[in-house]
Design a protein that fits this description.
about 70 residues; mainly alpha; about 0% strand; elongated
Length: about 70
């Protein structure tokens, strides 16, 4: 085994040696693990209504601009 292969192999082993307990240290105590549907549903309804309103607003703007351009005297 050449010296460069040995260096890369030892660096790879050192990098991946500390990954066993990574999930234990990488936990957020403020992040909920389970959320009830009563909490999620209002946000989902609001987002879907906002998406529909934005799409309707854009269609209305396009229709108004096309009408104004074609009815120009």
């Amino acid at each position: 085994m050449s010296f460069t292969q040995f260096v890369f192999l030892s660096l790879g082993l050192l990098l991946f040696a500390g990954c066993d307990s990574f999930e234990e240290f990488n936990t957020n105590p403020n992040e909920p693990t389970a959320v009830s549907p009563e909490v999620l549903l209002p946000g989902a309804i609001r987002q879907s209504v906002n998406t529909s309103v934005d799409a309707s607003f854009l269609v209305g703007n396009n229709a108004a601009q096309l009408t104004a351009k074609t009815l120009r005297l």
